[in-house]
Design brief:
Length: about 450
């Protein structure tokens, strides 16, 4: 049998931070892969204001059940996270309820640039700019505001890029031809490849003009790849992210899955999906993430103009990418690079993303054989509230370039769906796949 004694891997961390419980953790790792915990740089955990869908506690449970030990959460909540006060509320809430490490983006608007510039970017992971409207309607379309953001921002600018004028024109065209009750097959025609490229190219031009640090989120088209360069993430001023759904689905899947795979930006063609995977393997795309965005099933109903955009993936992203690796589309080493190493380097995260002496013990033991691989395309969501089996772990603020402040979290959580991973956050077991069946059975009986 092969054992990994986590005390040996993190003895310096345990000595420095007094985490004695980590010295006792021992796990049978025979037949498993040991990888760093996944860092997801784009999630929507819906708190505050949208907790009928999910909250920081439930979604961080889903994250650790899927091997994600750190996340960066987006600002389009109610109220939106567009002030330092709103940011502090989220940090405080996460310290109380999150199982995983965390940071939060501050959202830009047309009229809050002074507030954005005052945020503490030692803790805040970046500035989110919606250059196309999406869930929450935080569109930034003022030339003056965009100029100030790109010229003055002291931190990473993460953009949602879809050209609003093109989207509106496409929407009007298809409504005039077919009426408002449009099928989801029109979603990628309304939020078209042209709309994505026009907005992404504008963002890149602004970044080059002002030497800004730009991070293009959820690329969805082959054409956008022409705006990027290959090479190490540390040497780039413009970096990019792709989400697992754009690597997994294409527009041929709308017929089967309908609104369940409706996202903004829309899932595009098979050619786009293939090009995105090739760029992920080559290093032109730097990070793989989820854009995790849960909704109630009822909210996903209706025409493509009415159904909510987004889907819950944080519990499944690692499994999806490992499935792609088993299918020989991407090497396992590249999966780890894009989901663990590169996000840590890109955001300057202190001692996470790697398995090294002195680093935080955020690790995942992955079973090498996954039940259910080979046919299931859409993975059901973890929208249900998960129950706590016990409670003893340290969770932390995902601090950028500084040491981590500890908070109180929870331990040994069972997911509503079995997962193929054991997840360790800062040296304590948060999810153990071996216990999943018993825990799920207990939940069903409760």
């Amino acid at each position: 049998m092969i054992y990994y004694h986590f005390a040996e891997l993190i003895h310096r961390q345990a000595e420095k931070y007094g985490n004695r419980t980590a010295l006792k953790h021992r796990d049978n790792a025979t037949g498993k892969w040991l990888i760093p915990g996944v860092i997801d740089d784009q999630v929507h955990f819906r708190e505050p204001g949208l907790t009928h869908k999910a909250d920081i506690n439930t979604e961080s449970m889903a994250a650790v059940a899927g091997g994600v030990t750190s996340y960066m959460e987006m600002p389009n909540t109610k109220p939106p996270t567009t002030t330092r006060e709103a940011l502090e509320w989220k940090f405080s809430r996460a310290a109380q309820t999150s199982l995983a490490n965390y940071s939060f983006y501050i959202g830009a608007t047309n009229d809050n640039i002074d507030e954005v510039l005052k945020a503490d970017y030692r803790r805040v992971c970046g500035i989110k700019v919606f250059m196309g409207s999406s869930t929450g309607n935080m569109l930034v379309d003022s030339t003056e505001a965009l100029t100030r953001i790109f010229a003055e921002a002291p931190a990473l600018i993460a953009t949602h890029c879809e050209k609003e004028e093109i989207i509106k024109a496409n929407k009007e065209k298809y409504i005039e031809k077919f009426g408002k009750d449009l099928s989801v097959i029109y979603h990628p025609l309304i939020r078209s490849a042209e709309a994505c490229y026009a907005s992404s190219s504008e963002a890149v031009e602004l970044a080059h003009r002002y030497n800004a640090r730009l991070h293009l989120l959820h690329l969805s088209t082959a054409k956008e790849l022409t705006l990027l360069d290959d090479g190490p993430v540390e040497e780039k001023r413009v970096t990019s992210e792709v989400c697992v759904h754009h690597l997994y689905f294409d527009d041929n899947d709308y017929a089967q899955y309908g609104n369940l795979i409706k996202w903004n930006p829309a899932i595009k063609t098979a050619a786009d999906r293939i090009a995105l995977m090739q760029a992920t393997v080559s290093g032109r795309i730097d990070v793989v993430a989820t854009d995790h965005a849960p909704h109630l099933l009822a909210e996903k109903q209706g025409s493509c103009l009415e159904a909510a955009s987004g889907g819950p993936l944080v519990q499944h992203s690692l499994q999806v990418m490992l499935e792609k690796s088993l299918q020989r589309e991407i090497p396992i080493e590249t999966v780890v690079e894009r989901m663990c190493h590169a996000p840590a380097r890109l955001f300057g995260i202190d001692r996470r993303g790697f398995i090294r002496p002195g680093y935080y013990a955020d690790m995942v033991l992955v079973m090498s054989v996954y039940p259910g691989f080979g046919g299931q395309k859409f993975i059901p969501s973890a929208l249900e509230k998960l129950r706590v089996i016990s409670n003893e772990i340290k969770s932390s603020s995902l601090n950028v370039r500084l040491e981590i402040d500890g908070g109180v979290g929870l331990n040994n959580v069972a997911s509503v769906k079995e997962a193929g991973a054991d997840t360790i956050v800062a040296g304590s077991a948060v999810f153990n796949a071996a216990d999943a069946k018993a825990a799920i059975d207990a939940l069903r009986k409760a």
